[in-house]
Amino acid sequence: TRRRGDALRAFHAAIRSHPAGSKNPAAKEQAQGVMLKVLTAFKSSEIEQAVNSLDRNGVDLLMKYIYKGFEKPTENSSAILLQWHEKALAAGGLGSIVRVLTARKTV
Amino acid sequence: MAYHSFLLEPISCHAWNKDRTQIALCPNNHEVHIYRKDGAKWSKVHELKEHNGQVTGIDWAPESNRLVTCGTDRNAYVWTLKGNVWKPTLVILRINRAARCVKWSPKENKFAVGSGSRLISICYFEQENDWWVCKHIKKPIRSTVLSLDWHPNNVLLAAGSCDFKCRIFSAYIKEMEERPSPTPWGSKMPFGELMFESSSSCGWVHSICFSASGARVAWVSHDSTLCLADANKKMAVASLCTETLPLLAVTFITENSLVAAGHDCCPMLFTYEESQGTLTFGGKLDVPRQSSQRGLTARERFQNLDKKASSDTANATLDTLHKNSISQISVLVGGKANCSQFCTTGMDGGMSIWDVKSLESALKDLKIK
Lengths: 107, 369
Hints:
Chain A is 74% helix and 0% strand. Chain A is an all-alpha fold and 107 residues long.
């Protein structure tokens, strides 16, 4: 359907335009906001397919955004992020979480 | 797979003698214990007590049968067997932090020690003074050297460090050896020359290994990655972000295949595809025991859900042979070109011997290239 296609496109766009390496806190903050909006736009049943459309680097990046999102919870954000976390973990394994902890360039 | 539980504490490090009848290990203290194989049992035959701090590295030279040990007491000792007693000779490393790893060179006329002093001590025997002397490789190392491996030409040395980099240095000692011939890593090799440096990964480099030919070097880092640099491809680096917990030890078993292990407590196979320059995961090598699967009652399911937020009983116990992280892998038979048997030791105090042929037949999808 049209809405699902839009969400998936927005998702890939958000992944591609990540500002990792940027030292600009405002730019990073904005990117986090956009990503959270995009992740929220998905229906629970569509999350797995979206995650599986990512390559290894994309899954690692998604995991970084998820943990960043956990740091500043809004009313419903953690519940949504936990659903994404479950699917991202299945795709990236514990290694993707390790790389969130060891990353020197954060999202 | 033969598993022997030596200790209830971690085995800090180990080394085998040439014919694999004896193993020297540090039982998480200041000593080195040597065990000899006695049929199916292991008997302790020697206790080497000289270090004043934990022994962090042991290497056993196969031809000259000498042991070298290093420890947190900032010292290294070369041990020679006189009759039935191991006699130590102190080697002054001139470091002010703990020594962390030690390796004999292939010709056994030098050894290298990595330390927290952010340098590598290259030690060789000076005949006139009847004394081991050492030279330092310092630049551009910025943190503790955790692991070392020698190139087969007895000159080049790979070092993995806590500054997130893998480097290859020349450890050419003009006082005691011929000038080395050119290698794919370069032709000019004055002492301390940096022949290769990886770009930063994001994790401490725990273990590093040259392939049998010396044309490739592989390393594992704390960010759960495995990397390989190929000198025949202009030192191009292939890397793999693994799905596992960080790996602590890696070795080549053929020129294209690697076995690595770490905090997931089981050895795993990785394959390097030269034509594409890629590393891929080839599977876990621990054949799981057949665990009895009994059905859960509704009450047990609910209790699990309440306690662990999950209703399945898997992962309640470790199915792997090692019950804690594997910290070291050594090749037993076949060398790094055609390994048919390798050994792992870990923080569970256990030592396991793995037979490659048995693994290949037990794990149907395993492809060792």
